[in-house]
Amino acid sequence: MGNSSVLVVDDSPMFLQVVTRRLAEEVDADVVAVANLRATGTAMAERRFDVALVDLNLPDAPGGEVVDLALAHH
Fold first, then answer.
1. Going along the chain, which residue ranges are E strands?
2. Are 30 and 24 in contact (CB under 8 A)?
3. Of 73, 74, 61, whose CA–CA distance to 10 is shortest?
4. CB 47 within 8 A of CB 72
5. What is the per-residue pLDDT across 12-42, written as a single tens digit (0 to 9) for each?
């Protein structure tokens, strides 16, 4: 992937740690991990991501609002 970036969004610290570590080992990409909708919005406002892995149910977005946010940022 080289110079690619991946955003991982999940409210489970264990999941974030495992997925972030695995991605860092397996792909040549910058991996950013966040745990809520607010942090997702901040991360997406600061940079462009090539891939986003998002949890559909977050404490501050229980209705899947994070998907709409990700789609709005292409």
1. 4-9, 29-34, 51-54
2. no
3. 61
4. no
5. 999 999 999 999 889 988 999 999 999 999 9
